[in-house]
Amino acid sequence: MTSPEGFSIRRTRKEDYEGVLSTLKSLTTVGTISRSHFESIVSYWDSIRLLNARKQEGGELGYKYNNFVIVDDHNGQVAATGNIIIEQKLIHECGLVGHIEDISVSEKYQGKKLGKFLIDKLTSVGFANGCYKIILDCDRKNVKFYEKCGYEEAGVEMRIRSNL
Amino acid sequence: MTSPEGFSIRRTRKEDYEGVLSTLKSLTTVGTISRSHFESIVSYWDSIRLLNARKQEGGELGYKYNNFVIVDDHNGQVAATGNIIIEQKLIHECGLVGHIEDISVSEKYQGKKLGKFLIDKLTSVGFANGCYKIILDCDRKNVKFYEKCGYEEAGVEMRIRSNL
User: Which of residues 79-108 of B touch A (CB under 8 A)?
Assistant: First the structure.
């Protein structure tokens, strides 16, 4: 997996406030989030380690939340963002499962294959952390995209919304 | 939501070692898990609090992992188990989403509506913690069961397995 020319990928940092929130607006409702609230969530994500994190090496390994940004090297803008959250199970010999969530590519950066690059990176981070599988939920219209990323259909997503 | 007569429900504890593992075997491969490994995972689950946990009251609130057991009051056996893991997002005003995982009912306790009771409880725990939605993935054959629990079809589950 090589980075598309002119772009790099790394864990999200506190200074990505504007870039991440504006990118997420391509995906769904974001609402009003203060800089300090954003920073507290990035800190929270960074604070939760996997149970066996000490056995692992490397600056990107050992985290439960793995929110990444693709950055345009030319101007420093956030072009895409996405998360893989690693779940500690009991089944499968206390196995780990990755959940990919909230993939979004900023409108001005669409059509550059950054979505596939992001999924490939998150998948690689999940497996490097020891996940035996990685799952995600998507609309039917996005199935072909995820198949190109190596994923296959596995089941039905069910949902219930809060009445509040 | 009332507990089926003769059964109670509570968070999983370290002493549920045999009961939880034998119940999970109704669901899938569990493998060999030592008592100390089980206990370390229950401790790990209990150690991770939600970002706003201090604002919440009550012994069941404020946890990221919420693994519950239904216990047969007559003999203390674990009859069913399941988990709801609460994800801290940025979207939807830094919203929370619950992920229901690893629902299993021990074979000898099937047909007593414990599955629905468990889902109702986990759903209620998710909403009490502030989740704006709760999701789960299931086989097509289980869609009707989850519809009875108030869930609706929302998308497609995609999966990739590790080569290891």
Answer: 85, 87-94, 97, 99, 101-102
